Amino acid sequence: MQLDEATLIGIAEPLEFLAVTIAVIILAYLALEHKDIVYAAFFFGLMAAVVSGYFLFLEAPFVAGMQIAVYTGGISALIVFGVLLLPRSQDSSLETFPSLEKSRIGKLIAAAVTALSAALALTYPGVWQTAPSYAGIESEGANYFLEELAVWLWQDHGILIQIVGLIILTTLVGTIAIMRMEKAERLIPLKSDFGIEVIDLEKEDDHESDQEVSSSSEVEDQ
Amino acid sequence: MRLFMDFLPVIIWAILAGALVVIMLLTSWFLRPHTLQNSEKTASYECGEEPIGPARISYPYNYIVYTVLFVVVDVLTAFLWLFASASWDIRGSVLIVSQAIIFTLIIMIGIWYAVSRIPETILDGSETLALYREAKAKRDKEVETTH
Amino acid sequence: MMPLYAYVLVAFILVGMGAYGMMVKRNLIRILIGAEIMGNGVLIALIAFAMYGPTAGVYTFAGQGLVVLVISVFAAHTALAMVLMLMYHRRYGHVDLGKVVILEDEHFD
Q1: A89 and A176 in contact (C-beta within 8 Å)?
Q2: Domain locations in chain B?
Q3: pLDDT single digits (tens) C77-106
Q4: Domain residue spans of chain A
Q5: Interhelix angle for A76-85 vs A37-57, to 10°?
Q6: B112 and chain A in contact, CB less than 8 A
Q7: Structure pTM?
Q8: pLDDT in tens for each of the 222 residues of chain A?
Q9: Pairing between strand A195-199 and A189-192?
């Protein structure tokens, strides 16, 4: 058979799709099951970058770029940062559920969710078709997609962008509000395996924390 | 599918970058002497002192604001990338440019609010010290009245 | 092109793994990662249906535009969830779901 481009694409496409699928599923499993949570966060970032390959299969170049920029560059960095801010002396004990019953119920509910979403997705009448329902869009360059998407988003539906701007404004105001609410401290020493990690302020009607007041008074008077 | 083939050099470059790291680590593993290690050799170095406790401390919590600010600016940048790659009909019309300016202004109001209120979220010791002094005065007064 | 059910299969496998991560794990950060994986699965399904759906021969960009907006809203949601988890740790000292006590009446008097 002749090796023109259509035949090559016909051979290579299922292989590439399979490669991306296997990479995504392995990375998602590692992101959930690895004992060390920093590894899990990095695996999640890598998984988000590989998922953008799906968007390239589906002729959406701007969404692929935005996926890498926002998910891997923003949300994955946020998760790694959050993990770094927590003291990690308690990580490895958190991965075994103490009671087998609760983890069994959890797995049952997860299987029910998967089955429900599979049922909803596979009863869509057009899900068994093998060709996309337009004609010849692949021959356009990436510029066509970007320009047409900009027309759809900025010209026809510009109000949605302003609403997203308001949502992001809410996020920023909410972050500051949450951190200011937690600013009033209570002096309770939070002990971990290596001694006192954080000293909060005591509650005034708590008699057992008088010991901590006296111990911190010794530190104060030095 | 054609887009995926267009981006194939990027994928090859990413695989080569990963392979470079692996090859460097393997080469250094080959080239270093393999002697027995004991606990004194593998302990971390702390200027001659004995290391106590884990190497990680927990950082103050208020630096999360900067990461949230980065995510917000990232989303803004993604929308502005889309706007910048549009044709002249979009970039040149006054209505759509004013929409983009309004969107940027809304997000900048949020950024200004967050940045100007960062000093209020920082836990320095002053509130803690004031609360502690109140509690100590109250406890001293109780001790006085019971004696 | 690949048939549609291939993309949908991948999408609900990811949704299932995300649901498993949210139901079974104890670390709060891992639950957040599970939520993110679920979101990624839903986005794959959205764009796949956008390309294979009934559009009468003309490709409309509604699917891609919707996914752009959904990604940005989801990023904002994840940022707020992370801040809430950190404030929980600041107050209680742990991020263990097994030790979370929901009803404490020290503030409600």
Answers
A1: no
A2: 61-123
A3: 999 999 998 888 877 777 778 777 766 555
A4: 1-91, 139-184, 186-222
A5: 180
A6: no
A7: 0.81
A8: 566 767 777 777 788 899 999 999 999 999 998 888 889 999 999 999 999 988 988 888 899 999 999 999 999 999 998 888 776 655 555 555 556 677 788 889 989 999 998 888 888 877 777 777 665 666 667 788 888 899 999 999 999 999 999 999 999 999 998 888 765 555 455 555 555 555 554 443 343 333 333 333 333 333
A9: antiparallel
A97: closest chain C residue by CA: C26
Q: Which chains touch A (3 or more CB pairs under 8 A)?
A: B, C
Contact between B106 and A166 using a beta-carbon 8 Å cutoff: yes
Q: How far is CA A181 from CA B123, C80, C86, in A?
A: 12, 14, 13
Partner-chain contact A110 C76, CB within 8 Å: no
Q: Is B4's Cβ below 8 Å from some Cβ in C?
A: no
Please, what are the domains in chain C? 4-99 (1.10.287.3510)
- Contact at CB, C86 and B64, closer than 8 angstroms: yes
For tokens 């009671």, the residue is A99
SS3 state of residue B108: helix
Å between C92 CA and nearest CA of chain B:
14
CA distance C79 to B134: 36
Q: Which residue in chain C is spatially nearest to A53 when comparing CA positions? A: C44
Nearest CA in chain C to B82: C68
Judge: B74–A184 Cβ closer than 8 Å, yes or no: no
Interface predicted TM-score of the whole assembly (ipTM), two decimals: 0.89
